[in-house]
Amino acid sequence: MRRVLTHWRTSLTPVVLAAWWHWWGWASLALTVGIVAGALTGWRLVALASFDAWAGRHLRAWWLRWTVYSPKLPDWLHAYGLCIKPDAVPLVVTVTPLGRGIHRGRSHVQARLPRVLGVRSGAPWDEVRIRWCPARNQRIR
């Protein structure tokens, strides 16, 4: 539920499309999506500069956020040693005369990954905003 409220635009889109399909049918939905896609494609072909300024950069930023930066950012940060992947948390085995316990080492290291908050995109650049995980037992001065 928290993700639905946080990403309300992305969550609201399937609800609106399902409601459209239910009330007006799939043909109306397909025709409308086709007309909008055709209009955007025509606008891009006719006036690339105004398309990129008004719509292209927003569509590109949305697409890049969900297909490139959010899925690949944890691997990139792990490759540079900036975070620990959840599967890299050490396994701790405790053996006592009364029993044994196996768990991930929460007391030693807890895996946390930064979150992608947003992407701004221009023709030659992308600006990625992320929320870093707070460091444990460290002060930043």
Strand order of the largest sheet: 1-2
Taken together, the total number of domains comes to 2
Number of strands: 4
Order of helices and strands: HHHHEEEE
**Alpha carbon gyration radius:** 23 Å
End-to-end separation: 36 Å
Overall 3D form = elongated
Ranges where pLDDT stays below 50 over 5 or more residues in a row are: none
* Main sheet record: 2 strands, antiparallel
What structural class do you assign from the helix and strand content?
alpha+beta
How much of the polypeptide forms β-strand, as a percent range? 15-25%
Average pLDDT works out at 80
Measured as a percent range, the helix fraction is 40-55%
How many helices in DSSP terms? 4
What features would you describe in this structure?
The model has no long low-confidence stretch (mean pLDDT about 80). With about 140 residues, this protein is of the alpha+beta class. It folds into 2 domains: about 1-45, no CATH class; about 50-140, no CATH class. Strand 1 (about 90-95) and strand 2 (about 100-105) form a beta hairpin. It has helices at about 1-5, 10-25, 25-45, 50-80, and strands spanning about 90-95, 100-105, 115-120, 125-130. Strands 1-2 form a two-stranded antiparallel sheet. A two-stranded antiparallel sheet has the order 3-4. The protein is elongated and about 75 Å long. Helices cover about 55% and strands about 20% of the residues. It is built from 4 helices and 4 strands.
